[in-house]
Structures are given as structure tokens and as C-alpha cells.
């Protein structure tokens, strides 16, 4: 048998670059929520893949953006503190918005350089751009940063992933695996379930409201027939928010609950009884309750 190797990879990039999508398509399970709105990933999520006897642990860092509120600052701090110790930083770039974001990408890269960690570029969403445009982006990155490795992928269509995984398994140091063989994530099942409900809130509620909600799983239990009972509380800031989340005659919360339950049943491969409660509680000034590693 070959020797075991292990590598930690932090996925950095602007909001919407496709970080969560990449982790999901590599690990094949939905463990990081994906929505078209920015900054939905609040905490680090680890996705674990085994490839060529190498265990590769991916961390999805929250979007790097200009922080204003206390909560945002805490998020950014946690993103950077996550990067320091890791073996490889993967800077994910959205090919379809490269020109628009050149300056922001430069800023991120300058900060990454200071971490002295190995950095690779991965150009994502190549399914959205024409060949000449992709070539231009590639050349521009190559000239500007002189990095040895630039990959081109479509995380959504799982295109180009094997080249990337080949490279990561090659550079991984010999080391015993950090996690068990069957583990795809170290996020607790409670946290994962809360993330799924939060995703449905994002998809069903308009504008800024979802940003000020928090979902906590209060009960996660397996019944004798192997079905799961999951009780969650959706915390909102004000009474008026609670009304919106509930909807007319409870129509919104019902829809959110059904969509979340279907997703949970897929994830856990069994019947799920999901109970959602909405409670009012101000929380933006106490981010430490909701974020690990701050
Ligand atoms: P994150 O903020 O970096 O975690 O980005 P997400 O993974 O949440 O993705 C943001 C949006 O981009 C979602 O609507 C994804 O479906 C979409 N997306 C991600 N990767 C690709 C890709 O390779 N091709 C296309 N067409 N869309 C993608
Ligand atoms: Mg994300």
C-alpha cells in the first residue's frame, strides 16, 4: 500500500467565485450551502476528499469583502486566521467577472502573499466564457503574478477537477490522515442541517432580511425507525421580520420547511421530521455566539 498523505487547502476568493460549489462537487455531498447571493457562508466549512491515497481537507473561507459592521469584521478576521496554518491556498477566480474585479483580486493576492503559504490560482466558471476571453484572463494572471500553477475549471459542471486534484495530491506531504476514511465533513450534523434551512431562507426571502437571521438546531435525534427529528429555531431581529418569515397564514415558513426537509432527506438518506420555530432576538452585536474561531 502507498504511504498516506494529507493536505489542508483553504479556498479563498471573492464572494460568489464558487467556493462552496467547488467543495460540494469535489466531495460529492452538499455540505456547503450555495446561493446566488453573496456572503452566505458564515463559518468555515470543511470538506474532506480522498484522492490517490491523499486526504485533502478543504476549508471554505467566508467571502473577503470590506467589513463595516462588527459581525462583518469578525467574519473577515476568522477568514484570515483560518488561512495562516494551512498547506495550500487556492485562490478561486470567477472567469466571467475577472475584468470587473482585477483590483479586488490584486488586494486579496497581496494579503495572501504575506501568509507565506503556497498559493495557486484556479479560474472557475469557464463554462460561462468564450475561449479567447479565458485565454486573456489566464495570460493576464500569469504575467501579473508569475505563479507556477493556474488551473481552469467549472466547479458547477465538475470540469477540470481531476487535474487540480492530481496536483494537490502530488504536493501533499506524507502524513497520516487527519480524519476517518468515511468522513466528508467535520461540521456537525446539527450545523449542516441549520445551514440547509438558512439556504432556504436566502432563497425564499427577499433582499437583506436573511442576512440578519440565524438558524440554530436545538434537537437532532434519530428515532427507532431510523428517521430523524430535527428541531430548529430561526432567530430574527424584530417582530416585523418574524411576520415576513412566517408569511401570510404561515405560507412562507411552510414552503421553507418543505424545501429544507426535502434537502435534509437527500443528505441524510432517510425520512426527516423537521420543526421550525421563529423567535425574535437581537444578535448582531454579539457575533461571538455564532462564529467559531474569532
Ligand atoms: P461562493 O460565494 O464563493 O461560495 O460561491 P457559490 O459556490 O455560492 O456560488 C455562487 C454562484 O455561482 C452560484 O449561483 C453557483 O451556482 C454559481 N457557480 C459556481 N461555480 C460555477 C461554475 O463553474 N459555472 C457556473 N456557470 N456557475 C457557477
Ligand atoms: Mg460560499
Task: Show the helix and strand layout.
Layout: E1 5-13, H1 19-27, E2 45-51, E3 54-60, H2 70-84, E4 88-94, H3 98-114, E5 118-124, H4 131-145, E6 150-152, H5 161-171, H6 189-204, E7 214-222, E8 228-236, H7 239-246, H8 251-268, E9 272-280
Bound molecules: guanosine-5'-diphosphate (GDP) and magnesium ion (MG).
What does this structure look like?
- The chain has 294 residues and is of the alpha/beta class.
- It has helices at residues 19-27, 70-84, 98-114, 131-145, 161-171, 189-204, 239-246, 251-268, and strands at 5-13, 45-51, 54-60, 88-94, 118-124, 150-152, 214-222, 228-236, 272-280.
- The protein has 8 helices and 9 strands.
- The strands form 2 sheets. A 6-stranded mixed sheet has the order 2-3-1-4-5-6, with helices on both faces.
- It is globular and about 60 Å long.
- It binds guanosine-5'-diphosphate and magnesium ion.
- Guanosine-5'-diphosphate (GDP) is lined by residues 13, 15-21, 34-36, 41, 63, 124-125, 127-128, 154-156.
Amino acid at each position: 500500500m502507498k504511504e498516506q498523505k494529507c493536505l489542508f487547502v483553504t479556498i479563498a476568493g471573492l464572494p460568489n467565485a464558487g467556493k462552496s460549489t467547488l467543495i460540494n462537487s469535489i466531495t460529492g455531498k452538499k455540505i456547503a450551502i450555495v446561493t446566488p447571493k453573496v456572503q452566505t457562508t458564515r463559518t468555515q466549512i470543511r470538506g474532506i476528499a480522498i484522492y490517490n491515497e491523499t486526504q485533502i481537507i478543504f476549508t471554505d473561507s467566508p467571502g473577503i469583502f470590506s467589513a463595516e459592521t462588527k459581525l462583518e469584521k469578525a467574519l473577515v478576521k476568522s477568514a484570515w486566521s483560518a488561512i495562516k496554518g494551512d498547506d495550500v491556498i487556492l485562490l478561486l477566480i470567477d472567469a466571467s467577472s475577472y475584468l470587473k474585479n482585477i483590483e479586488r483580486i490584486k488586494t486579496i493576492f497581496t494579503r495572501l502573499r504575506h501568509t507565506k503559504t503556497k498559493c495557486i490560482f484556479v479560474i472557475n466558471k469557464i463554462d460561462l466564457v468564450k475561449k479567447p476571453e479565458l485565454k486573456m484572463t489566464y495570460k493576464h494572471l500569469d504575467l501579473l503574478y508569475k505563479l507556477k500553477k493556474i488551473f481552469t475549471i467549472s466547479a458547477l459542471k465538475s470540469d477540470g477537477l481531476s487535474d487540480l486534484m492530481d496536483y494537490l495530491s502530488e504536493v501533499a506531504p506524507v502524513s497520516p490522515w487527519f480524519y476517518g476514511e468515511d468522513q466528508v465533513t467535520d461540521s456537525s450534523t446539527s450545523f449542516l442541517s441549520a445551514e440547509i434551512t438558512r439556504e432556504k431562507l436566502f432563497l425564499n426571502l427577499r433582499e437583506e432580511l436573511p442576512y440578519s437571521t440565524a438558524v440554530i438546531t436545538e434537537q437532532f435525534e434519530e428515532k427507532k425507525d431510523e428517521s430523524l427529528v430535527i428541531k430548529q429555531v430561526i432567530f430574527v431581529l424584530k417582530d416585523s421580520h418574524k411576520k415576513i418569515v412566517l408569511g401570510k397564514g404561515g405560507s412562507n415558513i411552510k414552503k421553507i420547511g418543505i424545501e429544507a426537509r426535502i434537502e435534509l432527506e437527500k443528505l441524510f438518506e432517510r425520512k426527516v421530521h423537521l420543526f421550525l420555530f421563529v423567535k425574535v432576538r437581537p444578535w448582531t452585536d454579539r457575533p461571538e455566539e455564532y462564529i467559531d474561531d474569532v
